[in-house]
Write a structure and sequence with these properties.
Blueprint: H1 67-82, H2 88-110, H3 116-148, H4 156-167
Helix pairs in contact: 1-2, 1-3, 2-3
């Protein structure tokens, strides 16, 4: 047994055939050793990934999108300008926004969906639209019969004076 050291990595062993010779060991032109033949256990798969000690097992995907909360917010926002369109469209949109917000918050509580902030915003804007609509409807119901008599006056100045007189109780 000789105490001969192996050649540095990438250099050919003088006892082995070189890349240019007819040896069956390597057809590699770079002088590196050939990979082991298939089935000889050359490459082994890495061990399975283990989480780094974080509770919950690592990355958790976000909860699914809460469509009810989004629709509630859209209806709540729409109910505010709709309140000025006679009151009834804003009333309907405000009530629908509140109902959808309650359903969306229930989904959030059960863990079925996220976006609790959108559901809350939908509820708040729905309530604002509902209150504005209700206030305008009540004002219209109170003032409407008083102003009906003034609608038949064709002169704008006389019509304005009639409305002022009716509001002052004259």
């Amino acid at each position: 047994m000789s105490n001969q050291q192996p050649p540095p990595y990438g250099e050919n062993d003088p006892q082995e055939p070189s890349a240019g010779s007819s040896g069956a060991q390597s057809n590699n032109p770079y002088g590196t050793p050939a990979p082991p033949p298939p089935g000889s256990g050359g490459y082994q798969a890495p061990p399975p990934y283990q989480s780094g000690g974080y509770p919950g097992g690592g990355y958790q995907p976000p909860p699914p999108r809460n469509t009810l909360a989004i629709v509630s917010l859209v209806l709540g926002i729409a109910s505010i300008p709709l309140a000025c369109c006679g009151g009834y469209p804003g009333l309907v949109a405000g009530i629908a926004a509140i109902v959808l917000a309650v359903l969306a918050r229930g989904k959030v509580r059960r863990g079925e969906a996220g976006q609790a902030g959108l559901a809350t915003a939908g509820m708040v804007t729905g309530i604002v639209g509902l209150v504005i609509s209700a206030a305008l409807l009540i004002v219209g119901m109170i003032l409407g019969p008083k102003m009906a008599e003034c609608q038949n006056i064709s002169d704008p100045q006389q019509q304005s004076q009639c409305m002022i007189d009716k509001l002052q109780g004259k």
